[in-house]
TrEMBL record:
The keyword Flavoprotein applies. PANTHER family: ACYL-COA DEHYDROGENASE, ISOVALERYL-COA DEHYDROGENASE, MITOCHONDRIAL-RELATED. GO terms for molecular function: acyl-CoA dehydrogenase activity; flavin adenine dinucleotide binding. Keywords: FAD, Flavoprotein, Oxidoreductase. InterPro entries: Acyl-CoA_DH_CS, Acyl-CoA_Oxase/DH_mid-dom, Acyl-CoA_Oxase/DH_mid-dom_sf, AcylCo_DH-like_C, AcylCo_DH/oxidase_C, AcylCoA_DH/ox_N, AcylCoA_DH/ox_N_sf, AcylCoA_DH/oxidase_NM_dom_sf. Its cofactor is FAD. Belongs to the acyl-CoA dehydrogenase family. Signal peptide: none annotated. It comes from Candidatus Fischerbacteria bacterium RBG_13_37_8. This is Acyl-CoA dehydrogenase. Transmembrane segments: none annotated. The keyword Oxidoreductase applies. Residues 6-118 form the Acyl-CoA dehydrogenase/oxidase N-terminal domain. It comes from the Bacteria.
Amino acid sequence: MKIEFTEDQLCIRQMVRDVMEKEVLPHVETWESNELIPKEIFPTFAELGLFGMVIPETYGGAGIDYISSCLVIEEIARISASLAITISVHNSVGCYPVFKYGTDTQKQKYLLPLIKGEKIGCFAITEPNAGSDVAAIKTKAVKDGDTYILNGTKAWVTNGGFGGIAIIQAITDPAAGPKGISSFIVDSDSKGFIISKKEDKMGIRASATNEIILEDCRIPSENLLGKEGMGMRIALDALDGGRIGVAAQAIGISVAAVEKACEYAKARTSFGQNLADHQAIQFMLADAATKIESARLLTLKAAYLKDNNLRCAKEAAMAKLFASEASIDVTYKALQIFGAYGYSKEFPLERYSRDARVTTIYEGTSEIQRIVIAREILKAL
Ligand SMILES: Cc1cc2nc3c(=O)[nH]c(=O)nc-3n(C[C@H](O)[C@H](O)[C@H](O)COP(=O)(O)OP(=O)(O)OC[C@H]3O[C@@H](n4cnc5c(N)ncnc54)[C@H](O)[C@@H]3O)c2cc1C
């Protein structure tokens, strides 16, 4: 067993760190208060390969491995959690299902604009009355000649506000339960694709989260992804990658919080010494660093399995569960180290805490991750 990064992985990480500090850091607070990442910046990231990270070069992607993509998401989240989830979702549940399950024609038509950042990918399974209980979705896709007509409402769609390419899960066979769900590639230019309510969120405010209404949205039947009834399989497979991405996002937020807390603890004095000299503060930092390292190891293990085409449902769920819960704790402790200034918008600690909070909710709540992990271990033991 070798626990070290390759030259390429280190190089990609450094390159992304440099770009984030130069191109993104100066704008983060503006993006958050405007609740928008300007689309105009996307081609810059696309040129770096960030919009088709694990897609092979033959399809125009960057062809990097999942381990590198984790380092990339972590570095982005260290600066902007909103941008990290935008890019993670685009890659893991936007591009990946098209690459893995798409026909050659679908790949030619939809992958390239996604990779070039001309179209942003999103994934819509959640509905106003169906979140964790995916099988309870109501959106329907009815075959009509060589088209499908989609009707329903999708809620909380990350990147939904940009308009681009949506991977939509809809029921094609109501009698078949979860096996009656299918996946479709839907261009937001399609008639009846309505970008609706924008969510007013606690954190990651620059990330575009919208409701999408499908009103007699007619799409060519060739936009079915895989076969009818494969929707759950496609969604669960894509979500394994998505959960690895959220874990990496949570780690990046935690890293940023600890870096700031260390800096502050060395500069601020109380009772005649630096905060960093108080053992209580040192213990908080030590616990935070240990949690970050544990989260990173779990995440990289899941990424390693994915790189080797091995099943990683349990490991991705463990990584997401641990890294997300750790990030809530780490960001709160880092805020505590700042005292009152942690509670002020003058410093980013309050933003980190708000941003970390969502990581235990999306791409499956912590409770759902525990269900996945328990199911896997009970099956195996
Ligand atoms: C910012 C943001 C972005 C999102 N982006 C997307 C996206 O791009 N695409 C998309 O499809 N969805 C997205 N979601 C939706 C997200 O995946 C759901 O919110 C999540 O799956 C939980 O569903 P819910 O909110 O309906 O909660 P519910 O399913 O109603 O659950 C409520 C609570 O009950 C718990 N619970 C539910 N069932 C069980 C059970 N069986 N056992 C134990 N506890 C249970 C849950 O863990 C939770 O704590 C996003 C959400 C947010 C907040």
